[in-house]
Structures are given as structure tokens and as C-alpha cells.
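[User] Once you have settled down, look closely at the record that follows, and write a paragraph about the fold.
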Amino acid sequence: MPIPEGLHRPQTPGLFVVGADTGVGKTVVTCLIADQLRRRTAHQAPRSRIGVLKPFATGCRKEREGLVSDDSEQLAVAADFDPDIGDLDLITPIRFRPPVAPAVALEQSGQAELDWGALDRSLRRLDDRCDVVLIEGVGGLLVPL
């Protein structure tokens, strides 16, 4: 799955957290970094301006609001994510219910391609509103994204 050329490239300082496989602790590490940044900047503002992004999530649960990722909730709590910046849809713009690789989930969903526009909107909003952005990569090294 090639990433589109026009996808926004944030200018805000940040980190991209990747791992060798699913379940190796990317969310834990990203949450720890967000928590530490939040604690170090707590005296600067009433709410954190730490952006967190998990662009793709699979294995989401169905709720009234739609599909929800446990990892996205954990990231939001760790960063004390400001609801004025956005919600869980902003943190994880592309979500699937089956707990499989995103390419497989996309195929199973019958969609022709990922909603790159949703990811672009999240990147732009976080870049515009946050002082730092932490991005959690998807799956492992062999995930085709």
C-alpha cells in the first residue's frame, strides 16, 4: 500500500515509535514518552499540548460512537490529550474491527483503499495545534504500510 505523495508532513517536533512486530510494546513506550513529556510541561499550561497519533488500528471494538481502539484511549490518557484539539477519531483516523494486518482488514472490509484524507486531516490538525507529536507505527516491519 503506497502512501500518497500529497500526505501532510508535520513540521512539529516529535517521535515515530516503531517495533519489530505486533504486541512488542509500541503503545506502552509511546504512552510512557507522552506521560513523561506531559509531566515535564505541566507547569506551562493547564492542559497538555502533546499530540498522539496511531494512524491505523485493527481489532477495534464496536461502540455507539463507532469503532474504538483501546490503544487510542491509552494514548489519549497518557498525553492528557486536549479534547479541544480533537477526539479518538483524530488520534486514530483509520480503524478496523478484525484483529488482522491493516491490508487484510481493508481487503475484508471491501474498501478499495484507505481513507488517506482522514489521516491527512489528523496530521494537519496535530501539526497546527500541538507542541510535540508522537506517532505510533502499525504492526511490525513486514506490515505493508
Q: What stands out?
A: The helical segments are 26-41, 70-79, 88-91, 102-109, 116-129. The chain has five helices and seven strands. The first helix runs from residue 26 to 41.
